Amino acid sequence: MELTSMNKRESGFTLIELMIVVAIIAIIASIAIPNLMAARINANESAAIATLKNISSSQAQIQAAGIIDANGNGAGEYGYFQELSGARNVKTGTPATSVTVSAVKVAPPVLSGAFGKVDATGRVLRSGYYFQMYLPGVGADFLSEADPTAAYPTVDPSQSEVLWSCYAWPASFGNSGKRAFFVNQQGDVMASSNATTKYSGTTTPPSGGAAYVTVSGVTLSMAAEVAVNTTGTDGMRWTVVN
User: Fold this and answer.
1) How distant, in Å, are the alpha carbons of 5, 38, 80, 156 from that of 132?
2) DSSP assignment of 18-57, as one string?
3) Which end of the chain is more exposed for a tag (fewer CB within 10 A), N or C?
């Protein structure tokens, strides 16, 4: 009798016991996985904010140093990712004379070399977020850079002495991040909940004017008012987070 009882105990778990174990694991997973995802999203969003602050500091540094001076007037200008990272020589020339690549490179670079690896639309992917830089063209319209083999856009050097902007949005909304972020020459990092617009990856990026205010009868441009703690042209409320 004792041997039979021992054999039953040594034969392993019963089906009911296995089902209970599986149920417990499922409950634990249902609690842990959302928490892990939320932690990853929070970490990526914090990294995006820190990156935009770093970009803002880099732009201020490069403009003050006067390394980019496409029109040769002695006043420094803001730059694209490829310029700030030292991946490409800086711009020279004006829209009237054609904007080309100069013989000057930012050295040492003020941004990580990783920011020089832009895609065909000028976007950089870092820690679950895409970043895109804008500089003003004639009329302060929004111009983004292209890949390293393409020509520089016809940036207006006089306008780019005082204007620039950069957006950051999730590579995968709800997975790598939720909020969208913005910074420009004013230095304040702003955020939108991105709940309605759901900017995500390369398919649904924010437009250049998303975080600006629409004024009736006035053409939207980089010289427009930024939507600080109010609704932008994309219908989302942008609030200062730093």
Assistant:
1) 70, 25, 9, 18
2) HHHHHHHHHHHHHHHHHHHHHHHHHHHHHHHHHHHHHHHH
3) N
